[in-house]
């Protein structure tokens, strides 16, 4: 749980896997949990050599899609389904286990995706309203006074809105640009924005970052009140995230680092290919196995044919 908290603080997506049912013999226990990162690293205990790589692979899909899955490891009949059943409940994934075990597991895998980090710089009623609207969406929303704001208050996944109403807009925007946030917007007129950006460009602020500044911030809704300006800005941020433009993991999920995989020629399971994977080489081709039992069966069969 401490590791999950740290990953969430850093804005890194991960998945939580929980064993909700087991049939022995099985090395796992009901209620066992594991955390799987987007890089495919598993922390905790969810099962042995057959279960772990399958859970890691399924967790990658869960993180990418943002949709939970119930993974059923074993024979469908162990869970009350026939082999030819086509209308199994949506969200259930059956994976046969052929690792010399009659055990079975049900593992619930849920995504934990980072929420957007909204940083509103200013103290106007509009700034307060925008921060409140962000929190209403479940976002992490920080309201920071202009004179207190530093680049350390934001990161590359932050959505920064500068609403300092002409009070050191240039200094605040320059400090925000240092953090290189996913979104940087300035509340003000187009003319005011051109003046601020021109001033910063002349003083050496990163021109690439300045070119990304949205000014005026928010969708163009015409003449609006301060509350409507807050809504327009939030709408632009939601639109950007829906298009995968940053601010934490977009609704569709997150990118996942996939490990190389091979199919065990004996049991048909997918196994991750790495330094510790069991393998045999025959006639220039390498075969990988999920367990010593499958490797032994493969080599015994080859000796019989030879």
Which descriptors would you attach to this protein?
single chain, six-stranded mixed β-sheet, alpha/beta, Rossmann fold
Strand/helix succession: HEEEHEEEEHEEHEHHHEEEEH
Give me the side-by-side strand order of the main sheet.
3-2-1-6-4-5
Q: In angstroms, what separates the terminal alpha carbons?
A: 53 Å
CATH H-level name of the largest domain... which superfamily?
NAD(P)-binding Rossmann-like Domain
Short description:
The protein is α/β, with parallel strands linked by helices.
Structural overview:
The chain has 306 residues and is an alpha/beta fold. It has two domains: 2-114, no CATH class; 117-242, 3-Layer(aba) Sandwich (Rossmann fold), CATH 3.40.50. The chain has eight helices and 14 strands. It has helices at residues 2-10, 51-65, 125-136, 169-178, 190-202, 207-211, 226-242, 292-305; strands at residues 14-23, 33-37, 42-44, 69-73, 92-95, 104-112, 117-121, 140-144, 158-162, 183-186, 261-263, 270-272, 278-282, 285-289. It has a six-stranded mixed beta sheet with strand order 3-2-1-6-4-5, with helices on both faces. Strands 8-7-9-10 form a four-stranded parallel beta sheet, sandwiched between helices. Helix 3 crosses helix 7 (226-242).
Write the layout of secondary structure elements.
Blueprint: H1 2-10, E1 14-23, E2 33-37, E3 42-44, H2 51-65, E4 69-73, E5 92-95, E6 104-112, E7 117-121, H3 125-136, E8 140-144, E9 158-162, H4 169-178, E10 183-186, H5 190-202, H6 207-211, H7 226-242, E11 261-263, E12 270-272, E13 278-282, E14 285-289, H8 292-305
Parallel strand pairs: 4-5, 7-8, 7-9, 9-10
Antiparallel strand pairs: 1-2, 1-6, 2-3, 4-6, 11-12, 13-14
